[in-house]
Amino acid sequence: MTQPMVEWIISPGLTDYDTALAAMEARVADIVAGTAPELIWLLEHPPLYTSGTSAKVEDLIDPHRFPVHEARRGGQYTYHGPGQRVVYVMLDVGARGRDVRAFVRQLEDWVIAVLDEFNVKGKLRNGRVGVWVTRDDKPLTPTGDPPEEKIAAIGVRLRKWVSFHGISINVEPDLEHFSGIVPCGITQHGVTSLVDLGLPVTMNDVDVALRRRFDNIFSE
User: Fold this and answer.
1) Were 122 and a residue from 22, 23, 93, 131 both cysteine, which residue would form a disulfide, CB within 3.0 to 4.6 Å?
2) For the CA atoms of 22, 217, 1, 30, what is the dihedral angle to 10 degrees?
3) Which one is catalytic: 40, 107, 111, 184?
4) 163 pairs with which residues across the strands?
């Protein structure tokens, strides 16, 4: 089956969150109406926290540190900021099989494939959303296992079978900024980035990998 054409946009600088949300809402409406193609939108936000539909008030540790936005996506609290590649995914899931679980798995597989481009082994864990890496370079946990840290978050919403929101990959954000929340409600694991792992990866490197691996995942 021939897949629909997908437009790609990379926004320079930092994009205001409310502006991005309004743009997503408008584009999803146009995709539903058949007047615009699907879109992958790559951007960075200024420092902010977002709350998903499962967010718990007690997980917002420092509510006055950065602006807090209600994202209306799945998931709990997450952080966005400079050095993090946010990928807003506006795809017609209805035309791509109408299988929400399979679509989320495609997003996970996409992130793992991108990380593989930099010889980073991304992993999925039951009960923990997002993509994780094992830190063999850090001391063992009290259970005797190497610590695991989150490198990418995933949270989506569908409207009339068209997706929006998407994924975020930590390239080189200020990891201390995550301390104002309990990221995705998980307290016993940390957060990392490609640069924190010792890799001299740029945002452009990640963008190239995202584009290269997209068709392998979403055109199968």
Assistant:
1) 131
2) 0
3) 184
4) 158
CA 27 to the chain's CA centroid: 19
Q: How far apart, in Å, are the Cα atoms of 145 and each of 141, 149, 205?
A: 5, 12, 31
* Annotated catalytic residue 184: yes
Give 9's Cβ-side CA count (13 Å radius): 16
CA–CA distance, 214 with 124 (Å, rounded to integer) = 19
Q: Are 47 and 82 in contact (CB under 8 A)?
A: yes
Q: What's the distance, CA 136 to chain centroid? A: 24
| Angle subtended by helix axes 203-218 and 100-116, to nearest 10 | 140
Q: Enter the pTM of the model.
A: 0.93
CB 128: neighbour CB atoms within 10 A? 16
The residue among 141, 133, 146, 138 whose CA lies nearest residue 192 is 133
Which residues does residue 166 pair with via DSSP β-bridges, in sequence order? 88, 155
**Strands, E, within 84-146: which ranges?**
84-90, 123-125, 128-134
- Give whole-number Cα distances, 185 to 61, 125, 144, 164, in Å: 11, 14, 23, 22
